[in-house]
Amino acid sequence: MMSVATASALAAGMTELQEQQRAFRLAVVADGAAAGLLAAGSSDPLRRLQIYRHAYRSRLTDALAANYPALARALGDEAFAALAAQYIDARPSRKPSIRWFGDGLDDYVGQHDVLSHPALRDLLRLEWAICCAFDAADAPVATRDELARLAPEAWPTLRLELHPSVCLLDLDWNVEPIWQALTRDAETGIEQALPEPVEHRHSLVVWREGLTPKWRSLEAAEAECLRALQRGETFEELCRSAARRINAERAPAFVVGWLQRWLADGLIARV
Amino acid sequence: MNETSSCTTKISGFGLGLRTDHYHDFVDRKPVVDWLEVISENYMVPGGKPLHYLDSIRRDYPIVMHGVSLSIGGSDPLDRGYLRELKQLIDRVQPGWVSDHLCWTGVDHHNLHDLLPMPYTEASLRHLTDRVQQVQDFLGRRILLENVSSYVAYAADEMSEWEFVSELLSRADCHLLFDVNNVYVSSRNHGFDPWVYVDAMPARRVKQIHLAGHEDHGDFVVDTHDHPVRDEVWALYRYTIARIGEVPTMIERDDDIPPLDILLAELAQAREAAASAVALAA
């Protein structure tokens, strides 16, 4: 058991340390003066602080670019660095791992008018979803054979579950060709003119197949059906909601068709 | 302290830091490396590629874990969520040991993602001793702490870095991951004698050595891990081994990562340097 005297000495030392660390933090992130904090030493401590200041910004800018490579390419080095600088100041990292830096970028650009084109926001949302699919939890996927073995009477009440890597996005712009062009540029090293963004409200699904993130654009009816599945609706309910969009007779066939594709792609977790 | 989780993974010889660029080399070619060090945070993710390769490579190589976010010297409370995740990864990897840095990484829940120096004061020592003990109790094992490189010193410093480090090791009953390059970098930045630093290290607590490259700017030196190990650092390494004996040693490369064969050749250099140092000391 710690004595009262030791505990209070620990608390006093802790306050002193906290003040030193607060002053240091301000000196690094906000160019604070750090008066009295640093030893004069053999060289100018303010010049030496620049090493920490530079490291702080470049490390976080690099982490943001690693999570949003297509956005970084679309904006170019200078504009991306400017966006990163604003984001770094507005949304300091709170997570132990730098891997999550940029998790609030979609929200941030939604609140501040910082992008030169609104389609870029959809582009970055696609990138974050890809980034999350990359290291989302592992889970075995359901196969066609497994489902084929189900008794017919089990189907109406069957609730399928999506693989943990699956993310559904609603987009306002047709950003897929832009993402493809930017990604191709990154692979070939040759920069080509980007396709003009076209306004197009649609949905897109992102998931991981094996170790590789994938995405596919969806028609409205399929997207709605996938969302119903995500909400935990039964197979019967999926067919019923599809019937409201397509004609009632053909709806089950559509749902079965989509389901076959989802199974082939690995979107459905093992039942 | 009692080691409640027995550590069965034996580490000796010469290792490398595992980097994504070399995943396929380790899986396909299985090059001769005695052990690998992984950055813990890179694998503190739900699933996917990082954990897939970690599990696969772990089957062929002994591994040690090296963290960057413990913030053992921080003044925010220890992050229990982080420690729980770390423990889960330890259970998965069964590492030879677990290390982090003798530093702080953020304050007021703002993570700067940098290894920031501690003020070398009695207050820091007390604070660190208490926290190291908390972490060791939670993990059920001794941890290794690495001396970091630094560019500034605090006006409040009451002792030298080497006095501070060796005092902490003894008070907190933890081990040292001795980064020879960091000693060299800090010695140039603060104008101290790196050999004196080496002399002050308690040999029995040094469990691992890091070697790395740096960038020399003349009046200051930056710890960049993007160059081969420099001659001055090799000399300090030979001196360290001559004084404390053979210690598992690895090369860290984090930027401008070359093909694996180049790092393997550099690791062979480390083997030779250690062997010659041991022969000289005998």
Automatic annotation (TrEMBL), chain B:
<protein>
    <recommendedName>
        <fullName>UPF0276 protein IPH26_06260</fullName>
    </recommendedName>
</protein>
<comment type="similarity">
    <text>Belongs to the UPF0276 family.</text>
</comment>
<dbReference type="Pfam" id="PF05114">
    <property type="entry name" value="MbnB_TglH_ChrH"/>
</dbReference>
<dbReference type="InterPro" id="IPR036237">
    <property type="entry name" value="Xyl_isomerase-like_sf"/>
</dbReference>
<dbReference type="InterPro" id="IPR007801">
    <property type="entry name" value="MbnB/TglH/ChrH"/>
</dbReference>
